[in-house]
Amino acid sequence: MLSLKLNDAAVRAVGVLAGLDAAAPPGGLAPGLRDELSTGISHRGDVLTWADSAGDAGGAPSFFNDLTAWECSDSSFHLEDCVPVQVELVDSVPRITDDDQRILLLHGIAFALEFGRLVYGLDRPCPVRCIVATNETNATFRFHKIRPGEYWNHPELDEYRTELMAVIDIEP
């Protein structure tokens, strides 16, 4: 099962109410994101990581609150590093236009849907949450196993007033 939740700002930006075709990134998934997918994922003890992660969860959660926080830190990357959008520096602060935030969100959602194939392909598939967040300075993708009592994001996505948020749950 796959579940997609968006805050209201993301629903408007993606145009999801016009149909899922509106949610496809222009030109398809960016090659840089395809490269990220080719890395793969793997279980490492009680956590799920990128297959090439140097992180060691043996000591998790260490200074993290829980395993979910460890995974989110280890799995996080910036979408703008892989998707060709314009990031301008204004007074040494990155700025991403509303249009480019929308493009990053579309790529992040498409990436999460493709990421679902990696989850289903695990030798021990497990429920995974992907979180895509874009704002005027950056866009991130991260994932974690879904565990009772642990979460990274606020469950009420509309609490994120300055971000476009998408949460994709993949539950084999």
Entry summary:
The chain has 172 residues and is an alpha+beta fold. It has four helices and nine strands, in the order βααββαβββαβββ. It has helices at 8-14, 31-39, 67-75, 98-120, and strands at 2-6, 41-44, 47-50, 77-78, 88-90, 93-95, 128-134, 139-145, 164-170.
Give the arrangement of secondary structure elements.
Elements: E1 2-6, H1 8-14, H2 31-39, E2 41-44, E3 47-50, H3 67-75, E4 77-78, E5 88-90, E6 93-95, H4 98-120, E7 128-134, E8 139-145, E9 164-170
Antiparallel strand pairs: 1-9, 2-3, 4-8, 5-6, 7-8, 7-9
Q: Spatial order of the strands in the main sheet?
A: 1-9-7-8-4
- What is the string of helix and strand elements? EHHEEHEEEHEEE
Calculate the mean pLDDT score and round it.
88
Q: Into which percentage range does the β-strand content fall?
A: 15-25%
Structure class: alpha+beta
**Radius of gyration, in angstroms, nearest whole number:** 16 Å
Oligomer class: single chain
Shape designation: globular
Termini distance? 6 Å
Can you tell me the residue ranges where pLDDT is under 50 for at least 5 consecutive residues? none
Total domains: 1
Helix content: 25-40%
Count of distinct strands: 9
- Main β sheet profile: 5 strands, antiparallel
Give the count of helical stretches: 4
Structure description:
This protein is of the alpha+beta class. The protein has one domain (2-170). 28% of the residues lie in helices and 24% in strands. It contains four helices and nine strands. The protein has helices at residues 8-14, 31-39, 67-75, 98-120, and strands spanning 2-6, 41-44, 47-50, 77-78, 88-90, 93-95, 128-134, 139-145, 164-170. The strands form three sheets. A five-stranded antiparallel beta sheet has the order 1-9-7-8-4. The protein is globular, with a radius of gyration of 16 Å. The N and C termini lie close together (6 Å).
